[in-house]
Amino acid sequence: MTQADRLLELLYDRGEDHFALGELGGTMGLDRAKLQDALEVLRGRGHALELDPAYGVRLTRPFKLDAHLIERDLQTQRIGRSVICFDEVDSTNDVALDSAAQEGSDGLVVLADSQRRGRGRMGRTWISPHRANILMSVLLIDAGCELAHEALTIAAGLSVAEGIELACGVEPTLKWPNDVLLDDEKVAGVLIELRSISEKRAFAVGIGINVNAFPARDGVDFPATSLADHVHASVRRTEVVRAVLRRLDRWTEQIAENRLEELHADWVSRCGMLNQRIAVECDSRRCVGRVVDVSPLDGLILSCDDGRTIHLPSQRSTILPE
Ligand code: BTN
Q1: Among positive and negative, which fits the CA dihedral 74, 78, 80, 83?
Q2: Closest ligand 1 atom, CA of 189?
């Protein structure tokens, strides 16, 4: 580990508190000049530092996302062995998919503090102010068709809900296929995009989580909220990212082994839609009926008013406003 990485860990783990320079130098075994060099390296990596002559040094809020802090002791099998954090990109999904041809890119995590052309589901845009929220894509390379698209779609939303709960203590619910809600307002969304690359399928699991900011009511078709509005302590984006990656790693492993029962049960237990009457548009057709179930392989199961029971695949369906 580099000295700058170790320094970052120490400062990050202190949170709001300052670290006295003498104590910091002592902990790292560095004299004052070497410590200043390491602090400069952190500044060069984009970390803002507050130096107080009486108290010492601390990271300035909001903390910048840093690959080292996300990868540190992550304990995942597949996801997050490699993490890249950008200041600004067009879309993290594009960066992930563009990396798919590179050797060893399976499980790559791409994060950005802002996106110039962030995309949402069904051709919508995804807007997020600089450094306020989580904009992340996970690249999964599927060599042997072991990753069922529909299962991955619901697993991504479930992982986000679980990760938020683990990191922040609030209990999000799910709206099919993968909207994550707090008190019936959208706090996170998922956009999965697929590209074929020499006989393999590359999935970009794009995740947007409103941590500190959310779009105004007139800019969206569903009311939105942020974690900051529901969690009483300050939310560290790094901790939410790590918790989501761990859950997604676990569900991806189960999907690859075709073990879908637990995914189904855990998804349904967070979903308030069962038995509700809804309207859905699928392939430009409107269907109205009662939600019977969510299948990890076939999508939403709807008992229609005309007596038919239909399966709605998430990639082609959208729930219409009431
Ligand atoms: C939705 O419409 O609910 C899905 C929103 C997904 C947004 C994320 S942000 C990171 C990734 N990059 C994108 O361009 N979109 C996804």
Answers
A1: positive
A2: 3
Q: How far is CA 119 from the centre of its chain?
A: 14
> Considering Cα of 29, then 33, then 36, then 40, what sign does the dihedral take?
negative
Q: Is 41 helix (H, G, I), strand (E, B) or coil?
A: helix
Distance CA 190, CA 120 (A): 8
- Element counts in the chain: helices (H) and strands (E): 8, 14
Residue nearest to atom 11 of ligand 1 (CA): 206
Under DSSP, is residue 147 helix (H, G, I), strand (E, B) or coil? coil
Pocket lining for ligand 1, CB < 6 angstroms = 91-93, 115, 118-121, 124, 126, 135-137, 179, 189-191, 206-208
The tens place of each residue's pLDDT in the chain, 322 residues long, gives 999 999 999 999 999 899 999 999 999 999 999 999 999 999 999 999 999 999 999 999 889 999 999 999 999 999 998 999 999 999 999 999 999 999 999 999 999 999 999 999 988 999 999 999 999 999 999 988 789 999 999 999 999 999 999 999 999 999 999 999 999 999 999 999 999 998 899 999 999 999 998 887 666 678 999 999 999 888 999 999 999 999 999 999 999 999 999 999 999 999 989 999 999 999 999 999 999 999 999 999 999 998 999 999 999 999 998 6
